[in-house]
Design brief:
The complex is a heterodimer of chains A (515) and B (344).
Chain A: E1 10-21, E2 24-35, E3 39-43, H1 50-58, E4 65-70, E5 73-75, H2 80-85, E6 88-91, H3 103-115, H4 126-140, H5 146-149, H6 158-171, E7 176-180, H7 188-203, E8 207-211, H8 215-221, E9 224-229, E10 232-238, H9 244-252, E11 270-279, E12 283-286, E13 289-291, E14 295-299, H10 306-313, E15 321-326, E16 329-331, H11 336-341, E17 344-347, H12 351-355, H13 362-366, H14 371-374, H15 383-396, H16 413-425, E18 431-435, H17 443-458, E19 462-466, H18 470-476, E20 479-484, E21 487-493, H19 499-507
Parallel strand pairs in A: 3-8, 3-9, 6-7, 7-8, 14-19, 14-20, 17-18, 18-19
Antiparallel strand pairs in A: 1-2, 1-4, 4-5, 9-10, 11-12, 11-13, 11-15, 15-16, 20-21
Helix pairs in contact in A: 3-4, 3-6, 4-6, 15-16, 16-17
Chain B: H1 7-14, H2 16-27, H3 30-47, H4 54-79, H5 87-104, H6 111-136, H7 140-159, H8 169-176, E1 178-183, E2 189-193, H9 198-212, H10 214-224, H11 226-231, H12 236-262, H13 274-283, H14 295-311, H15 322-343
Antiparallel strand pairs in B: 1-2
Helix pairs in contact in B: 1-2, 3-14, 4-9, 4-10, 4-12, 4-13, 4-14, 5-6, 5-7, 5-12, 6-7, 6-12, 8-12, 9-10, 13-14
Classes of the chains: A alpha/beta (515), B mainly alpha (344).
GO cellular component, one term (chain B): plasma membrane
Subcellular location (chain B): Cell membrane
Main location (chain B): membrane
Chain lengths: 515, 344
């Protein structure tokens, strides 16, 4: 290891880092440096190399070429233990929690592991584990009671898990905390709290590196932007000096504006409506309607009942009271197959767990709903016809691959979402319910998904978008319904309102009247 | 946030005794094993009070030793998300080779050395398993099916197939060495042998490794999610090698005790009892998918299987029913755990 000059406060520097996966050149000579006490935002489309560069910094991957200068010492590659003992803590997108261990163990076990240089033949100190865990949990706003600390992580809701992962990163004396999309499942209040944690870390001279698609949060936190495109760092600088449009342009290499996508207008005829729909304690008195060619947005906090409503319409968790009308006919929807038969499509929020067969090909995923229709009396599937349909769908959805035999798991998030939407187009539904259609999807894919949504509406399909991405709803919908504590408490014309009014309605206590 | 992390806990506090027990079972699945064991013991004692005599309890204790040692090894591997079916072959290999070595070449070898050598020999064979699992990146089930055939094949082809009916004297003596001895009502002498102590000692050692050392936490971490564990700095290689070496060492120990207890060394012995042992561990609450389980659960599972095996005869049920009963228990317990999970 060579001693190199250690300029003031520079903690980590990447020099000409290259990484290849098989034939894919994922990183093409990446250079940047991180200083203590600063905040950084690593921005770029899915598949641009952000995750790879994070894994190289945290020691999970070795670069093929280049140099990592850490605290003035030069390395070819880092091991996880080297990175951790140098104070590089990472909150991975998948959280990297151990589901069968307790909260306390997940948060604080690393401290003792790293101290011993990764040696396992040592005793561990339980009371110290609990002390470290308690102070870290406190810092992220989680309870530090023995009952919570002893809970097994797999029993926690997703938002708490995300906070536990963050607590682990700050449990020890970190010098650099890397967070890969840390706010995807957090409520606004939890995000505010996280931003406070970040500010406190910076004041303690810790560097923080964010990877996120939520540009608003980047502006709120401030600091430096590092923008990636196709495995290269294309721009760096104070984030405040870039507009959103400029950032999106740098990330995609093309100009994407944040105008309203919605141009058409709905037909007069009613397509779908609900009458006093309710489900146990999740939602009640839901009366909404969607016309042909209309795009209706539904938003609300995570516990507002919006998710349950979407799943009730799709028959996944059926409603318990009230009724649904399709083309004016009252229709019972008790299970997903009822919804499909009545022309209701549902693109779930968690496409990985609920929607896609990741190790199956694009072709097989696209035709999953029409296999019956494609098969003859002997049950043999007409693959040629299937391929023709799949190719047509892939083209309509602008998938950026022509190889339909690629497993869906190898696609980027945006492409996976397009495969999923394409599958529903194969049965030409009357109503398509899109649940968080662009969660974890990059700017370029978002653009294409929005264009598709508009094309579908123009063809006469009714669309319900359930989402907490307010700009998305404002740009795409005709009307936006806000749910709060299980009821629809406000309705807005999407072109006559703004994010603030929507937020106010979402956060309003239900006793107030909202207008 | 409606989904408070405490919901589950509060639920079990508010919901009265039943859901309290439900919560306990969810946290400590071996409670079920314990209840089954108690029910069987009470049932058998009611039908045939002879069951409660010291002699039958001691029989059960004695019969638990070999299965229990195997089960502790299987538990540790299961906790890390792996599985081992080669431990019986390791036991057969070490016990037979050791007995042959001592009776043919080293008749004077002290018992302590014999035991230690068996343990080390078993561990060495286990290391082979560990290295193969780690370096081939093949599921441990496949690797250990391979090594089971391999170890057994080497034993029978190159070392010997002849039963050794007369053990070296120090081994025979160890098998008879009493820990407790008394006369029963009908005048027969009942002995709890010294080697019984090996099981509680091994159980405590395993408990200590699992609950007090970083290795124990690493084993559970790997069982929870091996990729994540590696990312967090746990060395998969160290864990894999340790696991299989530990299970191998316990198998070597079990093998030599098996010989001393039965006063003969049969090279065809032991292999074929793997499923019985894995059944005991699974009945003790460890999930086959890894990352769960406890030492106390494992021991309870072993007792359950041993009790079922030995008491059916006492209440007049043919011993061929034994498998049927154990099988039903496994399915019952599995169905019970699954419904608990769903209700949650």
């Amino acid at each position: 290891m060579l001693e190199t000059s250690n300029s003031q406060g520079r903690f980590l520097e990447l020099r000409q880092i290259h990484k290849r996966f098989g034939g894919v050149h994922a990183l093409r000579g990446v250079n940047f440096s991180l200083h203590l006490g600063e905040a950084y935002h690593l921005l770029g489309e899915n598949g641009c190399g952000k995750s790879t560069v994070i894994k190289i910094m945290s020691g999970a991957l070795s670069p093929d070429d280049g140099e990592i200068v850490l605290d003035g010492r030069s390395f070819r590659a880092l091991s996880p233990i080297q990175a951790l003992s140098a104070g590089i803590e990472t909150v991975y997108q998948d959280l990297s929690l151990l589901p069968n261990l307790t909260v306390a163990e997940n948060v604080a076990l690393s401290e003792q592991l790293v101290e011993g240089g990764g040696r396992l033949g040592r005793l561990f100190d339980k009371s110290r584990l609990n002390r470290t865990a308690a102070s870290a949990l406190d810092a992220v706003g989680l309870p530090k009671t023995p009952a919570f600390m002893g809970t097994v992580v797999s029993e926690l809701p997703l938002a708490s898990r995300q906070l536990v992962a963050i607590a682990r990163a700050i449990a020890t004396r970190a010098k650099l905390v890397i967070m890969d999309e840390p706010t995807t499942s957090l409520t606004r209040r939890e995000v505010d709290n996280l931003i406070q944690v970040v500010n406190r870390l910076r004041s303690e001279n810790v560097a923080v590196l964010f990877v996120t698609h939520k540009l608003d949060e980047c502006y709120r936190i401030g600091g430096h932007a590092i923008i990636f495109r196709d495995g290269e760092c294309v721009a760096q600088g104070e984030i405040a000096q870039y507009t959103k449009t400029e950032l999106a342009g740098l990330m995609t290499g093309r100009v994407i504006n944040s105008r309203r996508y919605r141009t058409g207008s709905p037909a007069a005829s009613q397509l779908f409506s609900t009458d006093n729909l309710g489900q146990a304690s999740n939602f009640r008195d839901i009366s909404l309607s969607v016309r042909q060619g209309e795009i209706v947005g539904i938003t609300g906090l995570a516990d507002s009942g919006r998710n349950e409503l979407a799943m009730a319409i799709a028959g996944i968790k059926p409603s318990t009271s009230g009724s649904m009308l399709i083309d004016g006919v009252e229709t019972m929807i008790r299970r997903p197959s009822d919804a499909i038969e009545n022309g209701i499509g549902y693109v779930p929020e968690d496409r990985l767990a609920e929607g896609l067969f990741l190790d199956k090909s694009i072709f097989e995923n696209e035709i999953a709903l029409i296999v019956k229709r494609l098969s003859n009396s002997l049950g043999i599937v007409d693959k040629q016809e299937g391929r023709r349909i799949a190719a047509k769908l892939a083209k309509e959805m602008r998938l950026n691959t022509s190889n339909l035999d690629m497993p869906v798991g190898s696609l980027s998030g945006g492409n996976q979402q397009r495969v999923l939407i394409g599958r529903w187009l194969s049965i030409s539904p009357k109503l398509l319910v899109l649940h968080g259609p662009t969660v974890g999807v990059d700017v370029g894919s978002k653009d294409m998904i929005y264009r598709t949504i508009q094309t579908l509406a123009e063809a006469g399909m009714g669309l319900l978008i359930v989402s907490d991405d307010l700009p998305e709803l404002l740009q795409n919908c005709d009307r936006i319904l806000v749910m709060n504590a299980g009821r629809i408490i406000a309705e807005f014309d999407a072109d006559k309102t703004d994010e603030d009014s929507l937020y106010k309605a979402m956060l309003a206590s239900t006793t107030e009247t909202v207008q | 946030m409606s989904s408070s992390p405490f919901e589950g806990l509060q639920e079990s506090q508010d919901g009265g005794v039943l859901s309290h027990i439900g919560g306990l079972i969810r946290r400590r699945p071996e409670t079920i094993t314990f209840m089954l064991l108690v029910m069987i013991c009470v049932g058998v004692a009611l039908i045939n009070p002879a069951f409660l005599q010291a002699s039958s309890l001691i029989d059960i204790g004695r019969a638990s030793v070999v299965t229990g040692l195997f089960a502790l090894g299987v538990f540790v591997i299961l906790a890390a998300g792996g599985i081992d079916v080669s431990f019986t072959a390791i036991a057969a290999f070490t016990m037979y080779s050791m007995t042959l070595l001592v009776s043919k070449h080293l008749p004077g070898l002290p018992m302590v050395v014999i035991i230690l050598t068996s343990v080390v020999g078993g561990a060495a064979l286990g290391v082979i398993n560990g290295l193969l699992v780690h370096n081939l990146k093949v599921p441990s089930l496949i690797v250990t099916i391979g090594t089971q055939y391999l170890f057994r094949g080497i034993l029978l082809s190159f070392i010997g197939t002849v039963w050794i009916m007369s053990l070296p004297p120090q081994m025979g003596a160890f098998g008879r060495l009493p820990l407790l001895q008394f006369e029963s009502a009908n005048g027969a002498t009942i002995t709890l042998p010294m080697y019984f102590l090996v099981l509680p000692i091994a159980a405590i050692a395993t408990w200590f490794i699992i609950n007090r050392t970083l290795m124990g936490r690493a084993i559970f971490a790997v069982g929870g999610n091996a990729n994540v564990a590696a990312r967090l700095g746990y060395s998969l290689r160290t864990v894999h090698i340790f696991l299989f070496a530990y299970a191998g060492a316990l198998a070597g120990l079990a093998g030599i005790i098996h010989v001393c207890a039965n006063r003969q060394a049969n090279p065809f012995d032991l292999v074929g009892t793997e499923i019985n042992v894995i059944a005991a561990v699974v009945l003790g609450g460890a999930r086959i998918t890894g990352g769960t389980g406890t030492v106390s659960g494992t021991i309870l599972g072993v007792l359950l299987v041993v009790v079922v095996n030995s008491v059916l005869v006492m209440i007049g049920i043919p011993s061929t029913w034994q498998r049927l009963v154990v099988g039903s228990f496994i399915l019952l317990a599995a169905a019970f755990f699954v419904t608990r999970e769903r209700m949650k």
